[in-house]
């Protein structure tokens, strides 16, 4: 087994020439392959008003993926809690945990997962919901607790079920909350790496043990592209760079096959922004991933590695996970101590 647990983040990106049905099919295929490799979990993200992302309904996708797999944990990376009533989230994930006991995770974020106009529609013009995030997390915990049986508002079938709650973050704000509540912390270094190291230091320094967790637990999500050679990985990563440039320029496109980088990437300001987003990204052969990821894991002391892999070709994507698994597996025999 790997020296450190490996997990997968999936956004169900729609590939060029495909549609949402194909994106969901490929997401299931990714989860099944990750399960055969012994990965710990696969998480589905929440995004809205994005034409080429098929993950607007993570709870539905989680149920679909869990039904197509048998052992791997399946969860949200995450549910953007200010978009939803805590009661509804408890009911949804209580239902999932009842259907797939011991396999469901609930990762929570406070960002909208979309643009501000769509966020206002989702939140029915209640723009203050993000400020209620700590209270909403506590309310969600209450709905899952057996003590809530005395309440006039109860969540069925969530009540009394153990569904692990994670706090997701891309800045230092979430680190303080995860530490205060004694919950595991997952950081989105795959697109917002700037405050990653500062955030996990804050989390560990301020961590308060809870009934849910006795010691700090950090999971970092990073981009990974593995291939037979460094040159091939460099070629494959062009799909990810194209996607980031599309986000920066607000000219989003489907997940594209590897090829020449867009002209916009060569504009210094755009290149600088894209390169900052790639600061926690790892590309290369098994040997290169072993060396670079090993150094990253040792330096940061993370407890679990989650990877986002944007590769157009489905077989090359699966091969990337296999190469990653072997690279991490080898770390325990080359002097890295976790």
Automatic annotation (TrEMBL):
Residues 16-263 form the Luciferase-like domain. PANTHER family: LUCIFERASE-LIKE MONOOXYGENASE (PTHR30137). NCBIfam families: oxido_grp_1. InterPro entries: Bact_Lucif_Oxidored, CmoO-like, Luciferase-like_dom, Luciferase-like_sf. GO terms for molecular function: oxidoreductase activity, acting on paired donors, with incorporation or reduction of molecular oxygen. This is Luciferase-like monooxygenase. It holds the Pfam family Bac_luciferase. To bacterial alkanal monooxygenase alpha and beta chains. Gene3D superfamilies: Luciferase-like domain. One of its GO terms (cellular component) is cytosol. SUPFAM superfamilies: Bacterial luciferase-like (SSF51679). It comes from Aquirufa rosea. It comes from the Bacteria.
């Amino acid at each position: 087994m790997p020296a450190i647990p490996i997990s997968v983040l999936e956004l169900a990106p729609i590939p060029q020439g495909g549609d949402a049905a194909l994106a969901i099919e490929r997401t299931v295929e990714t989860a099944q392959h990750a399960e055969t490799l012994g990965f710990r979990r696969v998480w589905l993200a929440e995004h809205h008003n994005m034409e080429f992302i098929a993950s607007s309904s993570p709870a539905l996708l989680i149920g679909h993926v869990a039904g197509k797999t048998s052992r791997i944990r399946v969860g949200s990376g995450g549910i953007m809690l200010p978009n939803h009533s805590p009661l509804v989230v408890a009911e949804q994930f209580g239902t999932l945990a009842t259907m797939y006991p011991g396999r469901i995770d609930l990762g929570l974020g406070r960002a909208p997962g979309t643009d501000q106009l769509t966020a206002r529609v989702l939140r029915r013009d209640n723009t203050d919901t993000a400020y209620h995030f700590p209270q909403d997390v506590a309310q969600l915990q209450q709905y899952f607790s057996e003590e809530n049986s005395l309440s006039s508002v109860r969540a069925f079938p969530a009540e009394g079920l153990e569904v692990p709650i994670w706090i997701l973050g891309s800045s230092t704000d979430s680190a303080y909350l995860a530490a205060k509540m004694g919950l595991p912390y997952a950081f989105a270094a795959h697109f917002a790496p700037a405050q990653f190291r500062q955030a996990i230091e804050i989390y560990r320094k301020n961590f308060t043990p809870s009934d849910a967790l006795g010691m700090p637990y950090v999971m970092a999500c990073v981009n990974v592209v593995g291939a037979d050679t460094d040159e091939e990985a460099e070629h494959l990563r062009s799909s990810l760079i194209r996607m980031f440039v599309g986000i920066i320029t607000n000219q989003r496109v489907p997940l594209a096959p590897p090829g020449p980088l867009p002209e916009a990437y060569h504009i210094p300001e755009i290149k600088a922004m894209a390169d900052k987003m790639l600061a926690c990204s790892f590309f290369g052969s098994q040997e290169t991933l072993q060396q670079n990821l090993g150094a990253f894991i040792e330096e940061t002391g993370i407890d679990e590695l989650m990877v986002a892999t944007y590769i157009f070709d489905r077989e090359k994507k699966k091969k990337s996970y296999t190469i990653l698994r072997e690279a991490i597996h080898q770390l325990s025999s080359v002097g890295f101590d976790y």
